[in-house]
Structures are given as C-alpha cells and as structure tokens.
Design goal:
Radius of gyration: 26 Å
Order of helices and strands: HEEHEEEHHEEHEEHEEEEEEHEHHH
Bound molecules: iron/sulfur cluster, FE2/S2 (inorganic) cluster
Keywords: 2Fe-2S, 4Fe-4S, Iron, Iron-sulfur, Membrane, Metal-binding, NAD, Translocase
Strand order of the largest sheet: 2-1-5-3-4
Cofactor: [4Fe-4S] cluster; [2Fe-2S] cluster
Number of domains: 4
GO molecular function: 2 iron, 2 sulfur cluster binding; 4 iron, 4 sulfur cluster binding; metal ion binding; oxidoreductase activity
Strand content: 15-25%
Largest sheet: 5 strands, mixed
CATH architecture of the largest domain: Roll
Family: Belongs to the complex I 75 kDa subunit family.
Helix content: 10-25%
Organism: Segetibacter aerophilus
Number of helices: 10
Shape: globular
Length: 382
C-alpha cells in the first residue's frame, strides 16, 4: 500500500500562497515555499534559520493560515500554523499577508516577544540591523499593554570576543544550534524554564573556539554582540564592502564594514533573509581569525560594495553610483544665481563656526539668521 502511495505521489507539490502558486519538492516547509514566492509573502522569522538543523518552532512569528490542507483533503487547518515547522502538501492553499487572522496574530506575537525585551534601541549596538526592531515596525502595534517589570540581567562577557546581554535575549535558540553544529564543543545552553529561562555558559566557562563568532551573526537581537566592535560606530555610518582573503580555516569571504580606510568590523555575508550565504554549496560561516583579528583594509582583497537587501537604514544613501540625478533647474529659474543659501547652507552659513553660540541665536538657525542684508546682526557681532 505504502509503495502504491509512493508511486502515485507527484514529484513536485503545488502550493498556493497568497494566490501565487509555486512548485516545491515534497518535504519543503511552507516557509521555504513562501520564500520561493519572495517579498512580503514570506513570513517573518525570528528563530528559524535555514542553515541550522532543527531551528524554528520557538517564536511563532511565522504563523500562517492553511485555508486548504491538500487536494486529497481540502479542509482548512483549524488553527494558524508555524510555517517553518509545517510541510506543504500537494494542492495546499496558504494565506500569509492576505489573512486578517495572520496579521492580527503577528501583532500578538510581537507583543509577546517584547514582554521582556527592553526598548533600548537608541543605545543598543544592534540598532539598524535588528530583526526584532524591523518586526516591530512592520508587524507590531504602536502601544504596549505591559505594565510589569521586565527581566533584568547583568551583562556577561562570554569569552574574549562576545558579550551576552541576556536582558535582550528572545530565547530563539539559534546560538545554541551554532554551538552544537559548527563548533567542536558546546559550552553554553538554555538553563531553567519559562520566565526563568536564560542563556548561560556552564559554570561560567568562556566560549572560545574558532567559529564562536558566528553566534553574533545569527542572534536576531542585540543579545550577543562583538566586543571588538561594541559602541564604536553606528552601523549606518559604515560602508559594507565584500572582501576575501585566503584562510585555511573558513571560506574567507566576508563583508567588511569600513569608515574611511578603517575596518570597524567583519561579518559573514548575509542574504536577503538575513542568513549567512552559501559558497560552493556550503554555508559561509567565518572563523574568529577573519572576524576579530583582520581589522586592516590591507588584510583583505576588496571586491566591491555590498548591497544590503533588507529594508535597512544601512542601505540609505550609501552608494550613489546608479543614482540618476534629475536635471538641476534652480539656477535657471533664479536667473543664473546659484542656490547657495537654499541648497548648501553648511558651506556658507556660520552654523559650524565655533565662535557662534547656537544657544544665543534667536529662533531656529535658518539661513535667514545669517543673512546680513536683512538688517539682523549676527550673534557674534552683537
Ligand atoms: S542570545 Fe541571541 S541567538 Fe541566543 S537565544 Fe538569545 S536571542 Fe537567540
Ligand atoms: S520562525 Fe517559525 S516559529 Fe520561529
């Protein structure tokens, strides 16, 4: 009987997600099928990481509605399901962003994830590339109903390169999978249960092995941060560049984050889902030597600018090479006069002069404040 079923089973399953039909191999999760469709249809994920075996099923961010289970059994599934942990069936119909229930549930999930997460984005090193920050903006509510005190932990240096700020951890388990799957020894895990659950090293043992830095890359929030980079720069002030070097431990293909000639940090290269990219069929995890010890531009062969695909402030205004500037008409409109005060205030105004006290300027410091022709005196000449 089982043989007959196998023989009759189609080679590829057709699944319709938000009215778009794709074909995927049997055994594919709804989430990976949705990523094949791409864009907003792909549910957000906070714990699933396709490169880490067994990940997913912890955060419920990826909930979807199954409107029809399969061609053979088209009944809808009674509850929303975690798309990272539910496999597609042939003829399945799934609703992601087209389902009111899903959008509402995502709001609830964000609220739950934020129960114990501090709203300290302005001082968090992960700001600008935090998946929880993105998730809250895209799927969260504007207000919180939570009135109780959040969990607080002391910051802990786990090894020479990584700092754990447990207060920000959302218990996604990704870092423990990294420890299990790509380092030789696992020295940390999740201790205790429920409200008391926390990441910790056993008997405060330091995490110190060649690939431990990858935990920083997979941590979706600012709970695990790079001690060689913490608070040195905001990520959106840095220029990400693809670079490589010959490394005998890892693929040596990285993104370096520069300001001028200075390399502020080195990370693995991430794809549009925020996951480490594959090279030659293998995940491009990078070793600690490349990540923490090679901080000179001359250590690297620069390949070119790195495009950051996620909707991130990091991408804003970095590379203007393909920007098409519109024809500038202001000078023509103004009879040949250059629009100095209007368009180039910092080159001509006194705002940057150390002798001018901004607090002494009446009203906002606009170009008018410094226009001597309108009869007003500059504060320094009073
Ligand atoms: S420290 Fe980061 S990666 Fe580890 S469980 Fe917490 S949120 Fe996830
Ligand atoms: S991403 Fe599916 S449950 Fe977390």
């Amino acid at each position: 009987m089982a043989e007959e079923v196998k023989k009759d089973a189609p080679q590829m399953f057709k699944v319709t997600i938000d009215n778009i039909t794709v074909e995927v191999a049997p055994g594919t999760s709804i989430l990976m099928a949705a990523r094949k469709v791409g864009g907003d249809v792909a549910p957000p994920t906070m714990c699933f990481y396709s490169k880490l075996k067994g990940s997913g099923g912890k955060c419920r961010t990826c909930l979807v509605e199954v409107a029809a289970g399969s061609t053979a059994d088209p009944r809808p599934m009674p509850k929303l399901v975690a798309s990272c942990r539910t496999n597609v069936m042939d003829g399945m119909v799934v609703k992601s962003i087209t389902s009111e229930k899903v959008l509402d549930a995502r709001k609830g999930v964000v609220e739950f994830l934020l129960l114990n997460h501090p709203l300290d984005c302005p001082i968090c090193d992960q700001a600008g590339e935090c998946h929880l920050q993105d998730l809250s903006y895209e799927h969260g509510k504007e207000e919180t109903r939570y009135e109780f005190q959040r969990r607080l932990f002391e910051r802990e240096d786990i090894g020479p390169y990584i700092q754990l700020h447990m207060t920000r951890c959302i218990l996604c388990y990704r870092c423990t999978y990294i420890a299990d799957q790509i380092t030789n020894t696992r020295m940390h895990g999740i201790l205790d249960r429920g409200e008391h659950a926390q990441i910790s090293t056993y008997i405060s043992k330091a995490i110190d092995n060649d690939f431990s830095g990858n935990m920083i890359d997979v941590c979706p929030v600012g709970a695990l941060t790079d001690r060689t980079f913490r608070f040195k720069q905001r990520v959106w002030f840095l220029k990400p560049l693809n670079a490589h070097r010959d490394c005998d431990k890892c693929c040596g293909k990285v993104t370096i984050w520069n300001r001028g000639d200075e390399v502020f940090r080195v990370t693995a290269r991430k794809d549009e889902w925020g996951e480490v990219e594959d090279f030659d069929g293998k995940t491009g995890w990078i070793c600690n030597t490349c990540r923490f010890d090679k901080k000179k531009t001359s250590d690297w062969v620069i390949e070119g600018p790195r495009k950051i695909n996620r909707h991130s402030v990091i991408s804003a205004n970095h590379y203007l090479d393909d920007l098409k500037r519109p024809h500038e008409t202001i000078a023509e409109v103004m009879g040949g006069r250059k629009p100095k005060l209007l368009m180039d205030i910092h080159a001509v105004s006194e705002v940057n002069k150390p002798t001018v006290h901004l607090s002494e300027i009446e009203g906002p410091a606009t170009s008018e404040v410094f226009n001597k022709e309108n009869g007003r005196l500059l504060p320094e000449t009073k």
